[in-house]
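ok trying again, last paste got cut off:
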Amino acid sequence: MSAVFSPRLSEFPSDLSSDSQIAKLRVPPHSIEAESSVLGGLLLDNGAWDRVGDLLVDSDFYRHEHKLIYAAIGALINASKPADVITVSEHLQNQGKTAETGGLGYLNSLAQYVPSASNIRRYAEIVRERSILRKLVSASDEIATNAFNPQGKAIDRILDEAEQKIFNIGEEGSRMKQGFQSMDTLVVELLDRVQEMADNPNDITGVPTGFYDLDRMTSGLQPGDMVVLAARPSMGKTAFAINIAEHVALNEGLPVAVFSMEMGASQLAVRVVGSIGRIDQGHLRTGKLSDDEWPRLTEAIEKLRTVSLHIDETPGLTPSELRANARRLARQCGKLGLIVVDYLQLMSGSGGSGGDNRATELGEISRGLKMLAKELQCPVIALSQLNRSVEQRTDKRPMMSDLRESGAIEQDADIIMFIYRDDYYNKDSKDPGVAEIIIGKQRNGPTGTVRLTFLKNLTRFESLASGLSDDY
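nice, full thing came through this time. structure:
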């Protein structure tokens, strides 16, 4: 943009920035009238900033001078200084931007132009809408360029990049939908939920896990919750998470997404079939099934043919890639019942897996998964490794401090569960085949321990008749 200022408002035809005229001229979508009305309204009433400051940033304006003027108004108001035609003009003059913005004369014309400062929120929405449309045009041009000239990129990568561009615009667009909610609306919604729960014959308000005692303690996995499942290697993290996924897909009939960055999809399929059919995993891997296992294999496969259980084995996913894949599956299958991520430490940060500070990267990953749970309104189970410090203690039951690089994970999680099997450490254990599911954190419920049976040859957890331990 040249430093020479462009014409005054009065010199523009009144219909120049209408959608039909813009479409004919093939210029990016914009509304000079709306932009001018926002700026004029703010110059007349600084209090109107509270109605537009959460919606607009200076880059949302199309005209260069409007971006500079909006930024100047915002800087003054945020510094608790008045922003009128005189003070804004002086601010721009101090920055050497008078020639770019038209000086005092143009600011005066903006203040005179605004139809009504009371409608400034709607003017701001129009500016924001046109900004999003411009981003869509720009993204579409880039997508078309990549399609015409792929430069050796694989088609899957081109598709992923195109989807990511649109996804990022959608993320920005969601800013228009956010804001305060009043208590009168919230309490009515609460009353409806309480009434619905009162009419419900059981106490499970979320997605059931299939483990009675665990569901009794948590009321099921709640939509929007991030559940961290942590344990040392070989404790059965993957098996436990997959058992829950099996139940949600088979018994609840809900779509389930499993992001497996440790095991391949075919390996997980073997585990799922063996668990559902109660078939020894070793027999499945070698094909040496007993006579009574063959019918169970056929029955398990028939059950799984119609279930909506989906496995993504892409290694080292970033939070944005995982969210894009989950969104795509939700569009295809409808509202997801559960997302499983195996496991947190195998994901990459947005800057790649070679970040200087892995704890910071894991914080970004953790926040991304929590945002995904809230956005799709389904629970996310994220598996996590524990520090080796567990092995140095006499009592090897995990604690919150054992979470590897735990700060952000502990903060973001709504529920944190640990798995402990005494017979793994003690050959003479009094509880062979018993696993303790230790709930170390539950944002909206009690902590405690649930005891389950672990069938190692089937890689399957089952409810234990003795139920909850005494510390429930």
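cool. The first helix runs from residue 19 to 25. Residues 421 and 427 are 11 Å apart (CA to CA).
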